[in-house]
Amino acid sequence: MNTEAFFKITYGLYIVSSGNGSKKSGYIANTAFQVTAEPPQIAIACNKDNYTSGLIQESKAFSISILKQEASPEIIGKFGYKTGKVINKFEGTTFLTGITGTPIVTDESIAWFECKVVNKFDVGSHIIYVGEIIENDLLEADGEPLTYDYYRNEKKGKAPKNAPTYIKPENEKTESKTFSTKDLGPKYQCMVCDHIYDPAEGDPDGGIAPGTPFEDIPDDWICPVCGAEKADFEIME
Ligand code: FE
């Protein structure tokens, strides 16, 4: 199987949320697609291990928020790389409560849909939920949606392990002995999302010039992919 071929399939990036009152959660999804116009229905594929999946089963409702292209690593880190079993993802997040009681993230989003579950299909590791849209809103008419391709190639993000598109690396640390140059020091890897900091490339979007050794990065710098702290990086050797 040529795994590179899978990256030619196009996807967006969304926050799918569900739950009620104090019991609510959400996750970063790349599969959300309109399946019919009449009635308006959207389908999502949700990993059974996701805390949110259980909340969708219980409440029979979910929401989809379309992330904007400039979505921050903080929101992607919070909803994509952490579990709702451990943290309340809605603390510090702007959201609405829908007709069904489901939370709807409006932070860093350009549009949202609230859906009630009308069908579901067990497809092994994931459940496909089909939802009928009962409410929606357009928050930014001119906003560009974040696509998975943009996230992967421009933001250098990787799919979290529960994503349908996650491809298990053949060797998680194949690059571990590759040093850019002796002067710049070793590469470091984010223990949360596997992003690799390469001193030769730096992190220009985060204000770190190419050629900056990891040790010289300010302590308040965060992972450009998931928002983890500098202390969450480990040396690759
Ligand atoms: Fe990270």
What does the secondary structure layout of this molecule look like, with pairings?
Elements: E1 14-20, E2 23-29, E3 32-36, E4 41-47, H1 51-59, E5 61-67, H2 73-80, E6 95-97, E7 103-105, E8 109-122, E9 126-138, H3 148-153, E10 188-190, E11 196-197, E12 233-235
Antiparallel strand pairs: 1-2, 1-5, 3-4, 4-9, 5-8, 6-7, 8-9, 10-11, 10-12
Fe (iii) ion binds next to loops.
What Rg do the Cα atoms give? 19 Å
Structural shape: elongated
Strand content: 25-35%
Oligomer: single chain
Reading the helices and strands in chain order gives EEEEHEHEEEEHEEE
Number of helices: 3
Intertermini distance:
30 Å
Low-confidence stretches: 171-180
* Helix-strand category: mainly beta
Q: Which ligands occur here?
A: fe (iii) ion
Spatial order of strands in the largest sheet: 2-1-5-8-9-4-3
Give the biggest beta sheet.
7 strands, antiparallel
- The helix content is under 10%
Mean pLDDT: 89
Number of DSSP strands?
Answer: 12
